């Protein structure tokens, strides 16, 4: 899918009076970005649904993190979702579609690329009809911050041609994020829950978090998925793809003044508090 570059505006909020090299090495300097994103369809599937796809009424922190990582991901930092503004009325759309039950093995695809004979895969014979309860005409503003991981500042185990020189700081990675967004560069096409639901985006400022008029009433959304993986990164993590076992974490979600927050709070929960659940949910 072709990614089209869009004009962007970047506003960086630094929670500090002055920036020094020592401060940038700590978590006290938090760089905050605001990303406006919209699309025709979205489906943030509830994990308790086994067969049919039933979406949450709003985007989850996990989906918001994945959307940002599709634009820029580095093991030296992780995204922390603080708030999400729901700019349009929540509308559901039900439809049925055919989904394939398996995929072509990677080894078979590589043999096909080398010209070797491969047993064909016919989607018509490997599909099943499933109902989907998705969201229609969505628009969000994601407020997120960058947090350095234990890998920041360590020697690179693999050359990174697309990374700026210098110390690993939030300033460095936010400059990279802005440059990639301006050029329309993505590691993968941003999407809303499913790859067939692409997400368009542009950077905004803090004023975009104000939802006026508010199309949705304040409501308790109950338990919502926070993430499906352990977001902590070890200094001993080996380079390359990590086959992580899913570990579900949840939180009490609420819609307050058109903004997704934790129930009774003004922001979404931080990973440091949510990760205490690991091991409690399977």
Keywords:
globular, single chain, two-stranded antiparallel ribbon, Alpha-Beta Plaits, disordered N terminus, alpha+beta
What this model shows, in words?
With 282 residues, this protein is α+β, with helices and mostly antiparallel strands. It has a single domain (13-115, 122-277), classed as Alpha-Beta Plaits. Helix content is 15%, strand content 32%. It is built from five helices and twelve strands. It has helices spanning 21-24, 61-71, 106-113, 170-183, 271-274, and strands at 13-14, 31-42, 53-54, 77-86, 92-100, 127-148, 191-192, 194-198, 200-204, 219-227, 249-256, 259-262.
The helix/strand order is EHEEHEEHEHEEEEEEH
Radius of gyration from CA coordinates: 20 Å
**Head-to-tail CA distance between termini:** 35 Å
- The CATH architecture name reads 2-Layer Sandwich
| Total count of strands | 12
